[in-house]
Amino acid sequence: MRRYRIRTLDARGDITESFQLAPALPLFEEAFSAFARGSTVETDMGPMAVEDLLPGDRVMTRDGGAMEIRWIGSTIYVPGHASHKARNLHLTRIMADSFGLARPSACLLTGPAARLLQGGSEGMLTPVQGFVDGISVIETAPPAPVELFHMCLARHAVIRVGGMEFETYHPGADAARRVGQSLRPAFMALFPGIGGLEDFGRPAYKRAPFGLAEAV
């Protein structure tokens, strides 16, 4: 089991916060582990650290202008933890200018669930692990625990984090198969106000699965 922190907007537009214990399974963890504390997200008010964002803040998207954050989740990643070693999970550090000038604008630490958009409007969202070259994009295990974050908007979108284009959270087209009927109530309980998996909508771009080359 893992402890997850959840902040969301209720029906009145007020911010609520809760902490929940839920399984430390891939589909659950992916909802909380894209951006490390200190990552800067482009908002309509300028760059903001991901840990300072709140539901109701508006982030800049690639295709739809500024969109409201509906949900923010976070968890603590402990380098060297047995569950991470068993699944070969790592953090990824992207060095400044690895993908071009100011891409990223400074060294950027990402979690196992981060996906980058490559190829523009017809591109694919690719896990950052697929770019590891041991030089400018490296696997890393910091000496202390790291807080990781992810977020949902009104719909799946691409946002700019540290000058790079990353996706917001979406469970994927295969989420129903991955979570199964027995764990679905526990998974959906992490997303107050979302009735079912279908309410996440369609992914905005093709997505390469973790560890695989083909898109779904």
Question: Which key terms come to mind for this protein?
Answer:
single chain; 216 residues; mainly beta; 6-stranded antiparallel sheet; 3-stranded antiparallel sheet; 16 strands; 11% helix; globular; disordered C terminus
Characterization of the model:
- It is a single chain.
- It contains three helices and 16 strands.
- By secondary structure, the chain is mainly beta.
- Residues 212-216 have low confidence and may be disordered.
- Strands 1, 2, 3, 6, 7 and 13 form a six-stranded antiparallel β-sheet that branches.
- The chain has helices at 26-30, 82-86, 175-188; strands at 2-9, 15-22, 35-36, 40-43, 46-49, 58-61, 65-77, 91-94, 108-110, 115-118, 124-127, 137-140, 146-153, 158-161, 164-167, 206-207.
- The longest helix is centred in the last third of the chain and has 14 residues, at 175-188.
- The two termini are 28 Å apart.
Secondary structure layout:
Blueprint: E1 2-9, E2 15-22, H1 26-30, E3 35-36, E4 40-43, E5 46-49, E6 58-61, E7 65-77, H2 82-86, E8 91-94, E9 108-110, E10 115-118, E11 124-127, E12 137-140, E13 146-153, E14 158-161, E15 164-167, H3 175-188, E16 206-207
Parallel strand pairs: 11-16
Antiparallel strand pairs: 1-2, 1-7, 3-13, 4-5, 6-7, 7-13, 8-9, 8-12, 10-11, 14-15
